[in-house]
UniProtKB/TrEMBL annotation:
Transmembrane segments: none annotated. PROSITE patterns: HTH_LUXR_2 (PS50043), RESPONSE_REGULATORY (PS50110). This is DNA-binding response regulator. GO terms for biological process: phosphorelay signal transduction system; regulation of DNA-templated transcription. PANTHER family: TRANSCRIPTIONAL REGULATORY PROTEIN NARL-RELATED, TWO-COMPONENT RESPONSE REGULATOR. Residues 2-122 form the Response regulatory domain. The modification 4-aspartylphosphate is found at residue 52. The lineage of its organism: Bacteria, Bacillati, Actinomycetota, Actinomycetes, Streptosporangiales. Keywords: DNA-binding, Phosphoprotein, Transcription, Transcription regulation. InterPro entries: CheY-like_superfamily (IPR011006), NreC/VraR/RcsB-like_REC (IPR058245), Sig_transdc_resp-reg_C-effctor (IPR016032), Sig_transdc_resp-reg_receiver (IPR001789), Tscrpt_reg_LuxR_C (IPR000792), WalR-like (IPR039420). It comes from Bailinhaonella thermotolerans.
Amino acid sequence: MRVVIAEDSVLLREGVARLLADGGIETVAAVGDGPGLVAAVEEHEPDLAVVDVRMPPSHTDEGLRAALAVRASRPGFPILVFSQYVEERYALDLIGEGAAAVGYLLKERVADVSDFLDAVRRVAGGETVIDPELVTQLLGRRRRGEPLDALTPREREVLGLMAEGRSNLAIASRLSVTAGAVEKHISGIFLKLGLEPAPEDHRRVLAVLAYLGRA
């Protein structure tokens, strides 16, 4: 796997590159600003970009805006946001424009290198990996009277784990229930959110987007 890193801190850039190398993942470019990210992806055509949120010149949201620019020119290109900040507006834009192959991890909450490498591989493989803290913050913005209010506490718990990118088996293991029970909960979620089967839609992704406030 070939990766581009966008991080304005030289030490963090080198640290992430070293972690990736130890996991057998090649860093083909490491840049310190948004335009550098866009140019590096164009030049090297990597399999994934690891992107910080705050980079020069204003150190606010340049990283996420550059990630959106990359996805606009390369729909579905895998992006893993790796930051110490939750930037809700552009995070929702990034997830909402196509939830597949998107990740958002908070630096201080990654306690194990293997978890980070697993997230890199999962996002590169087309999965969605969202930090539970981001899910919690986005959920806190929801208003009463919306379709999600019809969900049972267990269904909301299952949907929250879906939003973290967990498979049915992983959800079953986390909740100590059977995979069949998880499937029933997910069917109930689809029904209450009005997500009917359709060949052109991915109901699991649509449910997650509803949970995150975009659908």
